[in-house]
Design a protein that fits this description.
The structure is a homodimer of 219-residue chains. With 219 residues, chain A is of the alpha+beta class. Chain A contains 3 helices and 11 strands, in the order αααβββββββββββ. Chain A has 2 domains: 66 residues, Winged helix-like DNA-binding domain superfamily/Winged helix DNA-binding domain (Arc Repressor Mutant, subunit A, Orthogonal Bundle), CATH 1.10.10; 126 residues, Umud Fragment, subunit A (Ribbon), CATH 2.10.109. The first copy, chain A, binds a DNA duplex (30 and 30 nucleotides) through helix 3.
Chain lengths: 219, 219
DNA sequence: ATACCCGCCAAACACTTGTGCTGTCAAGCC
DNA sequence: GGCTTGACAGCACAAGTGTTTGGCGGGTAT
């Protein structure tokens, strides 16, 4: 038998879920079963109830029994009734070679914050994500320009080729580069043809985070 | 006669309003009249209805007639009162030359939505902002890569050099290019050294929107 | 074939919930 | 004292809304 995976939902269930999301964000309260039925041209309320039960079981929505208009979208999306989950602290600026305050040095709760799309930050680990404003064009070939905001997830290790914020202990400087581990040393590669890579002993580098997203405003 | 100022409400109304606020933030949906009645030990539903009418008239809450649990607190609650202001419809895909559904052709309320940082979308004009996913690398030199999401503000005109979504009437195609008005014709310039600009008569081009932001996920 | 499960349909049912109507009562005003 | 008004009470009704039951057709497994 072909079992549907616990995370996949049928086309009709997708429609219903989207309708609920949009309804809530538009009206501020949940649609009734009959609202859904009429909007999606479903011929019976029981079909809606049936699919709602599945969506609940699979964790896409939450409901309370017998409560009118008590559907709450859960996954993805804001849902969550107005709590702003997607604001991360903007901890400072990162340049080709300039200093960067350690994330620990800045109180994240007092820092400026930027709102980020939830797709860019795995919400379940949102506490580990922070933002930095980029100065300079050392990563221009990686499509990161001066003034862009990069989102980083805090992590101490990196795979070759990943873009990271790397701290050079000797220089007490932090830089945004592509990371390559090469035996005893580490190559920090700018994404700019006019700039040369930096080679440093592996024990002189601390990864401070990996770039998980880029936001650019052209206004 | 001492008229109560339009902004002051009685103790009972204050209680009701607070109860609604707390209920919504806790459960994600509004209380029913009887919920309020029981919680505040009010002896009749009509009293709740009566005070709800006053709260509505004075602008503290919003309701829809006959809708169960349709109360929405309005005041207070900085920002958005539960409504997510920063979601824009993702209307489709844009390529170097491929077709794009007209924004009007897609029901924005049924489209997928992306949450965008408020900085990227002038919130006061949010209704005019939409998102498109970029396919191809025709704008690679403008630091826009395949898979990026571009935010566009709907507008019919553009300054030279601005990046726009342009519709070519003859080809019924939409493309993401830099816009240059050159006399009787328009030059649509890709940001990719391997691609050539397109020259079209000015009356064959309709601007569909201007790029105001870029979002890229590297996860 | 037969049995079974899934997704759907139709209709009835029963609970939930907003509304309307009729009073009561105290306070202010002529 | 009469009259009006604001706030509240009690109650019944009707509309809104979730739930349930029985049935149907098309697949899939036995």
């Amino acid at each position: 038998m072909r079992r549907s995976s616990p995370d996949t939902i049928s086309a009709r269930q997708t429609d219903i879920f989207h309708y609920i999301e949009n309804f809530v964000s538009q009206y501020g309260y949940s649609p009734s079963i009959r609202d859904i039925q009429n909007a999606l041209n479903i011929s019976s309320t029981s079909v809606v109830a049936y699919n709602l039960r599945i969506l609940t079981a699979k964790g896409w929505i939450e409901r309370e029994d017998k409560i009118s208009r008590g559907i709450r979208p859960k996954r993805n999306r804001n849902g969550n009734g107005g709590i702003d989950l997607f604001r991360v602290p903007l901890l400072g600026t990162i340049t080709a070679g300039g200093p960067l305050p350690e994330p620990e040095e800045v109180d994240p709760s007092s820092a400026d914050k930027v709102t980020v799309p939830p797709d860019l930050a795995d919400v379940s680990r949102l506490g580990d994500v922070y933002a930095l404003k980029v100065r300079g064009q050392s990563m221009i070939d990686a499509l990161i320009d001066d003034g862009d905001i990069v989102l980083l997830r805090f992590q101490n290790t990196a795979e070759n080729g990943q873009m990271v914020a790397a701290r050079l202990l000797d220089d007490n400087a932090v830089t945004l580069k592509k990371f390559y581990h090469e035996g005893e040393r580490v190559r920090l590669q700018p994404a700019n043809q006019t700039m040369s890579p930096i080679y440093v002993p592996a024990d002189n580098v601390v990864i401070q985070g990996r770039v998980v997203g880029v936001i650019r405003s052209l206004i």
